[in-house]
């Protein structure tokens, strides 16, 4: 990158702020980006907020020149400060590691074993169940709808909405995470019986 004078920009909007364990998702890659984009979890309580972190030598904007929808929300700043304090005071990174291990084990033992055509992938507290080769879009939609009926909202993403996205709050209680996973498994069991 340096030899070609190209900026390295990391998009941590959804995977940053501890979602993958460390605060930034790219830390495990041992890279130093020129810019980092943060949003979603950065406000700590779901208020609209985003940040652009950049190396000082790249900051050539004048005050007020960089505007946007998610800038300057005082309540989000307070929530973001509280979230950073919470992360520090509760060892959130270790907690995410424990929950991530649970999710990975659950997906391997309870979902992947259903078929070699079901692929799961993820890290930390963001995982996907890829059903592209196992029922495709219609089956993914059926699972998501059954989860909703059972009281669990699960988003479909990826090509043709064939991936069920598991994206629980970082501060979720383990019992609630276990309950959510059991609902996913129940939805699979029930949808497979009627397939």
CATH level-4 homologous superfamily of the largest domain: Aspartate Aminotransferase, domain 1
Principal-axis shape? elongated
Count of distinct strands: 7
Helices and strands, in N-to-C order?
EEEHHEEHEEH
Our estimate of the beta-strand percent is: 5-15%
Q: Please write the CATH class name of the largest domain.
A: Alpha Beta
Look at the helices and sheets and give the structural class: alpha+beta
- Low-pLDDT stretches are none
Strand order of the largest sheet: 4-5-7-6
CATH architectural label of the largest domain: Alpha-Beta Complex
Overall pLDDT confidence: 91
Give me the number of helical elements.
4
Number of domains as seen in the coordinates: 2
Keywords:
4-stranded antiparallel β-sheet; 2 domains; Aspartate Aminotransferase, domain 2; 195 residues; elongated; alpha+beta; Aspartate Aminotransferase, domain 1
What does this molecule look like?
- The chain has 195 residues and is α+β, with helices and mostly antiparallel strands.
- The protein folds into two domains: 2-90, Type I PLP-dependent aspartate aminotransferase-like (Major domain) (Aspartate Aminotransferase, domain 2); 92-193, Alpha-Beta Complex (Aspartate Aminotransferase, domain 1), CATH 3.90.1150.
- It has helices at residues 74-90, 92-111, 136-149, 174-193, and strands at residues 9-11, 35-38, 51-54, 119-123, 126-130, 155-157, 163-166.
- Strands 4-5-7-6 form a four-stranded antiparallel beta sheet, covered by helices on one side. A three-stranded mixed beta sheet has the order 1-2-3, with no helix packed on it.
- A hairpin with a 2-residue loop joins strand 4 and strand 5.
- Helix 2 (92-111) runs parallel beside helix 4 (174-193) and helix 3 (136-149) packs across helix 4 (174-193).
- The mean pLDDT is 91.
């Amino acid at each position: 990158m340096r030899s070609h004078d190209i900026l390295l920009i990391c998009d941590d909007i959804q995977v940053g702020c501890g979602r993958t364990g460390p605060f930034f998702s790219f830390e495990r890659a041992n890279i130093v980006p020129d810019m980092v984009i943060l949003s979603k979890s950065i406000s700590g309580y779901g208020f609209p907020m985003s940040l652009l972190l950049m190396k000082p030598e790249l900051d050539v904007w004048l005050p007020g020149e960089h505007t946007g929808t998610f800038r300057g929300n005082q309540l989000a700043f307070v929530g973001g400060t509280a979230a950073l304090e919470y992360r520090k005071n509760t060892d959130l990174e270790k907690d995410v590691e424990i929950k991530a291990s649970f999710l990975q084990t659950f997906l391997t033992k309870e979902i992947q074993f259903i078929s070699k055509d079901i692929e799961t992938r993820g890290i930390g507290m963001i995982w996907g169940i890829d059903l592209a080769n196992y029922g495709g879009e219609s089956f993914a939609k059926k699972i998501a709808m059954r989860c909703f009926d059972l009281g669990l909202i699960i988003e479909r993403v990826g090509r043709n909405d064939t991936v069920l996205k598991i994206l629980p709050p970082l501060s979720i209680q383990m019992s609630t995470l276990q309950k959510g996973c059991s609902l996913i498994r129940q939805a699979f069991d029930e949808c497979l019986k009627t397939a």
